[in-house]
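pipeline: protein-struct stage 2 | run 1193 | 2-amino-4-hydroxy-6-hydroxymethyldihydropteridine pyrophosphokinase
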Amino acid sequence: MSSKAQTYLIALGGNMPSALGGPEITLRAALKRLPETGLKVEAVSRFFQTPCFPAGAGPDYVNAAACLSSDKSPKEVLHRLHDIEAEFGRERLQRWGMRCLDLDLLSAGQRVLPDMKTYTQWQTLPPDAQRSDAPSELILPHPRLAERAFVLVPLAEIAPDWAHPTSGLTVKEMLASLPASEKDLVLPL
């Protein structure tokens, strides 16, 4: 990694087939596509099967996490992730809807974007508002990162000691704080 390169953590997921096939095939193809867009893949977790959220809303998901490095800005990285999603047929029609490919930017090193006040507003958003409201700007780290077993279980394989820049908790610590009943639903493929 060059001295200008930034470390990025991303979550990968999908529960619908793409033109290539099922979610596992699509995620593997997306991982191969990342380096072609200037995003170097440093590490990838195993793939996991997780229940659709909210429960009963569709087929189970395949989830994974990856550590990337790039000299691109966080906004440029997000744009490239969205371009890859679109290449694989992802349409952003419904928040938390079914999808063939989801590439979520979780963090850019220890950066808090766009600022601490805005991050805190999104991180403390009430559950009802989370379902309907979407930010118009990039919020990092991902405001729901610490709440989601389907993100933290794969992330713990590749970045267990990454510390959240606002809470100071590591991925291992965030994962340990989740109920066992949630973690037990994330099954290795």
